[in-house]
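Severity: low
Component: inverse-folding endpoint
Summary: output formatting inconsistent between runs
Steps to reproduce: submit the following structure tokens with default settings.
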């Protein structure tokens, strides 16, 4: 039971981080510098050293593990040839591998404390996600917002925008239905969000001209390379930009730096 719960929390963590990291044309231009894998690994190692009381040998081993997996996860996230569901599976597997390596370095007491801290942060993140979802506008408004932003960024014709809004509405309704049953969530439900994003993107691309597809891909790659800051990660008081795929717009709440990143925030 505990193993199943940890696996679900891991899946939710992967999903929320991945959705934020792979948002595409719908978002505003990125703001500010993004932490490098090396910076994230260093931050996490410092938290683990202080929070778990690691000795020098453990600290050195943990630092190497954190850095190696931060780089692997960043590489997986930026892979332009992988779908969101493929990235979901790859990053989830990397998280599991990383936990197994950390388990070989930490004492049982330290590893148990590490997992407790992870679960606390992930549960807190999910609670915030549900709170934001309660204040979200209805699916038709989210679909309209998404379509307007597409029109602005891709210069859609009126006919394209109308069809895009129909597609966006269909997937906004499916995302809402999936989110409403998350109290009984399992890994399949968490992964389904990534699948919905992939399916939605594939349908939207059928509406686009070759030139629009090229612009679509350029904007998507920009988001992969420069995810926006959220409060808690960048400069104080500066919030990252909203996009139609975020809470209030049809998808789960993306993580904030320090709450859940490729190194799972502070832990």
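Observed output (run 2 of 3):
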């Amino acid at each position: 039971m505990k193993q199943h719960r940890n696996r679900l929390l891991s899946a939710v963590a992967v999903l929320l981080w991945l959705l934020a990291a792979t948002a595409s044309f719908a978002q505003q231009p990125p703001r500010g510098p993004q932490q490098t894998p090396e910076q994230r690994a260093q931050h996490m190692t410092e938290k683990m050293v202080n929070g778990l009381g690691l000795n020098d040998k453990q600290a050195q081993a943990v630092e190497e593990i954190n850095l190696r997996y931060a780089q692997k996860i960043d590489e997986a996230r930026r892979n332009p040839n992988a779908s969101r569901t493929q990235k979901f599976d790859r990053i989830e597997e990397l998280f599991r591998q990383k936990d197994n390596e950390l388990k070989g370095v930490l004492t049982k007491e330290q590893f148990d404390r590490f997992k407790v801290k992870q679960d606390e942060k992930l549960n807190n993140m999910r609670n915030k996600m549900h709170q934001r979802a309660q204040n979200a506008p209805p699916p038709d408004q989210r679909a309209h917002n998404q379509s307007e932003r597409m029109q602005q960024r891709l210069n859609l014709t009126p006919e394209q925008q109308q069809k895009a809004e129909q597609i966006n509405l269909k997937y906004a309704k499916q995302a809402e239905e999936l989110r409403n049953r998350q109290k009984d969530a399992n890994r399949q439900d968490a992964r389904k969000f990534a699948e919905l994003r992939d399916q939605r993107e594939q349908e939207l691309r059928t509406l686009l001209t070759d030139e629009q597809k090229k612009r679509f891909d350029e904007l998507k790659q920009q988001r992969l390379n420069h995810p926006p800051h959220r409060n808690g990660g960048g400069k104080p008081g500066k919030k990252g930009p909203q996009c139609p795929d975020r809470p209030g717009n049809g998808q789960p709440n993306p993580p904030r730096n320090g709450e859940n990143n490729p190194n799972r925030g502070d832990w």
